[in-house]
Amino acid sequence: PSLWLVVPAAGIGQRMKAECPKQYLKINNRFILDITLSRLLDNAPFKGCMVPLNPADHWWPDSESSQDDRIQSCTGGKERADSVLSALHALAEQADESDWVLVHDAARPCLHADDLSNLIDTVSEHPVGGLLAAPVSDTLKLADDGAPPEVAQTVDRSRLWRALTPQMFRFGALRAALESCLENNQPVTDESSAMEFSGKMPVLVEGRPDNLKITVPSDLALAEFILGRL
Ligand code: C5P
Q1: Quick check: CB of 20 below 6 Å from ligand 1?
Q2: Has residue 112 been placed in a domain?
Q3: Which of 36, 165, 167, 182 lies in the 20 to 30 Å Cα band around 188?
Q4: What is the pLDDT of residue 15?
Q5: Enclosing H/E stretch for 32
Q6: What proportions of the chain, in percent to the nearest 5, are helix, strand and coil?
Q7: The organism sits in which domain of life (predicted)?
Q8: What is the distance between the alpha carbons of residues 59 and 77, in angstroms, rounded to a whole number?
Q9: Stretch 135-139: mean pLDDT, rounded?
């Protein structure tokens, strides 16, 4: 089966409080989106790549990626899951149901090449698919509903993981799972949760915790530091 790439980039990045969406902030004078896409495309054999964009996006034409003939773009949707689904629909004529599709956040430029290849190697042998994830290192507290909240309980973290991207699933199964969640108003914040809602349990592949999703302003300096050491 072939491997396809979807990089959702249709978010507006409200928490970043910047004048443009966070995927268009620059690190070392390159758009974050361009760094993310080249890390992926230069390190794995993708058959094609689809990037769902916000309808109001006017930065894309200035990106390196828009000039790269390996990359196609389409219109994204209201939530991340809508954007991923619209990318799958845009690829539907080219991809087979049993092909693999790898989904990675535009805002995660610090992906290590060996995490990417570990994920692809492990998931290729798995019946459902899987995701990069990192074991939780902080002690976790469950809060009560007070204001301010007090600790209700300390949670056992030994089996808790943070879900990262990339996440990799069969093309047809992922599309069906996302459609079913959207029809059932089931909240989906990643592809894995859509599969789980269909009763299909993905494999967790341990990835480096420094594969951070740029979310708040201080993440930019951290990402620049990590990228310098990749
Ligand atoms: O907002 P958050 O950090 O969870 O977004 C994760 C990724 O999903 C980002 O790359 C963002 O551009 C993308 N996204 C999208 N369509 C949306 C919302 C987010 O493609 N409607």
Answers
A1: no
A2: yes
A3: 36
A4: 78
A5: helix 32-41
A6: 35, 25, 45
A7: Bacteria
A8: 17
A9: 96
ipTM: 0.97
Closest-lying ligand 1 atom to the alpha carbon of residue 8:
20
Q: pLDDT tens across 80-101, in order?
A: 999 999 999 999 999 999 999 9
What is the count of structural domains for the chain?
A: 1
- For ligand 1, mutation pick of 73, 105, 167 (most atoms within 8 Å of CB): 105
The alpha carbon dihedral of 118, 106, 165, 49 has a sign of negative
Provide CB contacts within 8 A for 184, sequence distance 6+: 197
In a domain? residue 155: no
Q: Which of 83, 188, 189 to mutate to test the pocket of ligand 1 (most atoms within 8 A of CB)?
A: 83
Q: 3-state class of 208 per DSSP?
A: coil
Residue with tokens 């006017």: 58
Task: Give the per-residue pLDDT at 198.
Answer: 93
- Percent residues over pLDDT 90 in the chain: 95
CATH of the domain at 116: 3.90.550.10
Is the pLDDT at 38 greater than 80? The verdict is yes
54: containing domain: 3-134+162-228
In a domain, 184, yes or no: yes
Helix and strand element counts for the chain (H, E): 6, 11
Query: CA–CA distance from 153 to each of 112, 128, 142, 147 (Å)?
Result: 35, 33, 5, 16
